[in-house]
Structure formats: C-alpha cells, structure tokens
Design brief:
Elements lengths: L1 H17 L3 E6 L4 E7 L6 E5 L3 E2 L2 H9 L7 H11 L6 E3 L1 H16 L2
Parallel strand pairs: 1-5
Antiparallel strand pairs: 1-2, 2-3, 3-4
Helix pairs in contact: 1-3
The structure holds zinc ion.
C-alpha cells in the first residue's frame, strides 16, 4: 500500500514536471528560493519551501497528521526538478512573484 502510494506520487510528480507546473522563484539579492507548483485543476499554486513543507492538504493530513508518507508529490516534484529536470522548471522574477502571491493564497483557500 505504501509502495503504491509512493509510485502514484512519483507519477504525479513526473506529470507536474512534464506539464511545466513547477516554478522556481528566486528573490535577489536576498537569495531566497521558493518553488510553486501550479494546481492541476483550477487556478492557484502550492508553495513548497526548503523541500520540507508544502501548503497542500495532502501534506497537512498524510505527512503531518497521519504520518503516512514523508512528503507530498509536490515536494517530490520539486526535488526531481532540482536533481534531474532543471530545464523543465520555469522561473519567475521577484516582481512577478508579488503578483502571483494572490494565486498562492487562492490555492490555500480553494483546496
Ligand atoms: Zn503538496
């Protein structure tokens, strides 16, 4: 069961990368890096910070509360982007991040 969930998450992560839903946000000169994962359906983004935290429901319920897995597929997708698929990862500038911040909030509200 755990393996099936892990495989399903891996496939979802690959799909997110293929669909170019991973966005790297680098804020300079502070050098702060965030990743956004666009929701598959509807509008809004999940915010992934430091490969450790995601703003999605699965992270809250399956990772934090139920301890069913170590991370959600959004974090997995970000890790894969960093290690193998850097060219598939979109980037945005600080100014655009401020605009997109509303979309992150939408992602939090419309889960
Ligand atoms: Zn997530």
């Amino acid at each position: 069961m755990v393996t099936r969930t892990k495989n399903a998450d891996y496939l979802k992560a690959l799909r997110a990368i293929k669909d170019r839903r991973i966005i790297r946000v680098l804020i300079m000169p502070e050098g702060v890096e965030y990743y956004l994962v666009k929701k598959r359906k509807g509008s809004g983004y999940y915010l992934v910070t430091d490969d450790l935290h995601c703003t999605c429901d699965s992270f809250l319920f399956d990772v934090i509360l139920r301890r069913k897995k170590k991370y959600c597929y959004h974090i997995m997708a970000v890790k894969l982007c960093k290690s193998k698929f850097a060219s598939q990862c979109r980037e945005i500038k600080k100014e655009n991040f401020e605009i997109i911040f509303k979309e992150i909030l939408k992602g939090l509200i419309n889960q």
